[in-house]
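Morning!

As promised:
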Amino acid sequence: MKSLAKSPWLLHYDGSSCNGCDIEVLACLTPIYDVERFGVINTGNPKHADIFLITGGINTQNAPIVKKLYETMPSPKVVVAVGICASDGGIFKECYNINGGVDTAIPVDIYVPGCAARPEAIIDGVVKAVGLLNEKRNAMKAEAKKK
Amino acid sequence: MTKIVAIVLYIVLGPILGGLLAGFDRVLSARMQGRKGPPLLQPFYDVRKLFAKQSIAVNHVQNFLVGGFFIFVVFTGCLFFSGGDLLLVFFALTLAAIFLIMAACSANSPFSSMGAQRELMQMMAYEPMVLLVAIGFYMSTGSFAVSDIAKMDYPSIVNLPGVFIGFLFILTIKLRKSPYDLSTSHHAHQEMVKGLTTEISGNILGFVELSHWYENVFLLGIVGLFFMYSAWWSIILAVAVCILSYCIEVFIDMVFPRVKWEFMLKATWLVTMAAGVLNLVFLSALK
């Protein structure tokens, strides 16, 4: 099933990030990196998204929002945690309001390390996510056949 | 017989042409921004993916209404390309648009209803000009039938330059291009999420995309109709003008930021009056 690989639409959510990673995510869309050449669109709508890109750690206020966004996305979907804060809390880990990385709220498939994560690393993460999307789609189909 | 051939050709070739047009649009837009852009076939990949996704239905009424939108857009194009009545064509197009607005209204999301309201504003802005196009063709050729209009001794553009300019102006709204992409926000997709299509996902969104492709081909058909006449090579001229006007629309899309609805309404009605109505007044005075 190649159809998902060629048109991954992203949903970008800023948890409690310092905005460093967010700027790098947006840098991927600029003429230098131009991820649109792989069919990537940065959509603002969870219902249209295939890949959930989160930057920054999770705190008690944004945890329910992240969960809600994840539930709203139609399957198959992949979660990419961008930057060290999204991966496990980073330098904010010890803060009283931080729960930790994105995996404290929803299951994360791909971790992209870095502070801030470089655009090359983010694109690499998205490419890995696309591979996973296909796997999940095939699993969905197999399950549908069983039923 | 030719009518049936035209209808079958439109149903089969419509989405292929429309998809290629959308792909061309994205490549051209990217090049204008100094980017490489997606492959030409990207819109086809997108729609294929949408049909492979899980479909989350907000309610069943919405699916029905989107179906109505799809069917009536295809019906509009079939009527037009089989040489039907131009008035009926435009009424069917309006009905299709109403179906889409109802689909957006049926969901509870505030973004979706805001998109629906803005779509109504857009309709208010472009409908007068659309009717003037039909009246203009009638005054110029003495017939509402597309098949008669395309077989005159000279192209209608000779009589209707103002109406043509007015139609190009509202084409920006119909093609959902900036500065008038108020209801679905194609580029500025963060401001009200996705407007009309916020609550539409998966294969239903795929149908909306397909309908837009059919609609765009039909709209360019109207642009071409201004240049069609009895000579066989006028079809080449018409296609060339269609491609050129689409490139101009993409250029406008890239250059202008979005405007507020008040400006859209004032600007389109002003152009409708200045270009469309004046043209028709002169035409009736000359005849």
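The radius of gyration of chain B is 19 Å.

Hope this helps with the figure draft.
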